[in-house]
Amino acid sequence: MRHKYSPWAVLAIVAGAVALGGGGLHLTNQPEFCASCHTIAPSYESWAKSSHKEVSCVDCHVRSTPEGWLRDKAYAGTKDVLITWFGTPTVPHDLDATVHSELCLSCHREILRVSEVAPRDLPPPVKEVGLVMSHRKHMEAFAKRGKGEGCVTCHSRVVHGEPIKGYPIVVPRGHVEADSKPHEPRHPKDSVLYRKAMADCFRCHDGKTEHDGAVLSRKCETCHLPEKVQDLLF
Fold first, then answer.
1. Could you tell me which Pfam families the record lists for this protein (predicted)?
2. What percent of the chain has pLDDT over 70?
3. Which CATH number applies to 7-92?
4. Where in the chain are the domains?
């Protein structure tokens, strides 16, 4: 015997499913939901103290396209839940999340347009060391290399790292070998986060790597205004 359902009953079921789905989506978009996983807890705590504490997790980790939502949220989120419940969760110092550059540039696209040569345009603390470099040129170089590099190649710990050397915010490590104020990351030396913290500009500017037919120099003047580093040069 076939059951007959009134249009109103069908509409109520559909509306309920949509409401539940929307409510669930809203819940899983909240940073507090992410923090409910013990593996993510350290990342949540560092985010809450960072310069990005008003930006939610999904704003940086989930692309707004249909493919991005399916891959970054539905698939990755479900996989993480299954691993947490039935597998062996990754320890916090070995977390290696993907952050796509288009998400960074959705808020910071002006960095590709502003002058990064005039000292007056330099924001603190890079003004202190006269650091001048073009984000646009670096993004173009990363695209040409085709190794999946982008904003987080240099800014990987800007949200989840700790400020160093008295700076008020997290800044990329310029160099480790030539740093007069060394800083040792508080992570196991064989961990993902330790390697990310110790990776610096010399990974490319090593005096050997070439770009557009020219060797990437290790000289201070390549990235710094000479008058800012003259005490170190002589």
1. Cytochrom_NNT
2. 86
3. 1.10.3820.10
4. 7-92, 101-233
